[in-house]
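Bench notes, afternoon.
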Amino acid sequence: MKNEASVLFVGAGPGDPELITLKGLKALQRADVVVYAGSLVNRALLEELKSGAEAYDSAPLNLDQVLQIMTEAVAAGRHVVRLHTGDPSVYGAIQEQMEALDALGIDYAVIPGVTAAFASAATLRQELTLPGVSQTVVLTRIEGRTPVPEKEQLRRIAALGATVCLYLSVSMMDEVVEELLAGGVYTPNTPVAVVSKASWPDEQMVEGTLADIAEKVADSGIRRQALILVGEVLSARKDGVPEKSKLYDRDFFHGFRVKS
């Protein structure tokens, strides 16, 4: 990690200001200029800025304007933090920013964060990978204004039968349900959970099945900032885990637990 890089991309976490990493918090506290995703980042994090630091909300800005703020700050010898929600590698639109900085010869580094899928799993108190149920987690979205490659259409993803975490899709719940069922593996009884604003004080959670989740979400008023989690792992708390993990099996030995 290049801690002395001129620009640090920092994952702010899903909402709770205490879920930023310690490394990310230290970078924020050292920053002279912060460009933050104002539509999603908890503004309580801005209270960590040192006196005299400047903060810019990127929500009304385009890419060129964001880059101008960052490059002018770097040229003036100032430390810049680009503060993204969750983890910046997941739907963070950082690739285009990093490519522009590469072209300008500006050094940067990325500090990861907690993505909303894992905050949602914590809210549900649910492990996403269970022996005998699912050993694969897919982070994806349904096609909307941003296209999805043909090979990654939701019905194709659903055909895996894995645990699926859908971002940026809750406003299209009817289409989500239709595509998931079209995969031919999930059924109307497949459990689904929708977590809105995971880890925020006004967090909401709706649980159901593919048969009724769209109606339940509509009744809840959830329209945005929500994760959709799908898969049989979600029924484990009610039905019990069919297989226990080998990791802590008393008869399972490995390099750190040898047979006595």
